[in-house]
User: What shape does this take?
Amino acid sequence: MDGLARFLPRGGQLPPEQSDARHRLMTVALALHLPVLLVVGALRGQSLLHLGVELLWLPAALVIVTRTGLRRQVREVVVALALLGCSAVLIHLMDGATEAHFHFFVVLPLLVLYERW
Assistant: This one.
């Protein structure tokens, strides 16, 4: 049984350098959503006013997640909620298309990178 236990996840915290690197990756992934969602909305015929109102929270979330003065957990929660919010906005912009729902299935494995067991 001890031999098997060494292959199982132990939980706990990541070393700070690994955690910071993963948070930077997640922040970049979140930042890339803004231009993509703007383009998708524009191609789907949404007005700039509609897109501005719908995506106003995303730059605010990016400001929060890049603040080094905030606790790591706060920044990670904001990234997680913002990525899930991007999924919701994408589904809305795509008029509920089934394919847009797959964005959730892309976001969930990304969130696992934080290793917050």
The chain has a mean pLDDT of 89.
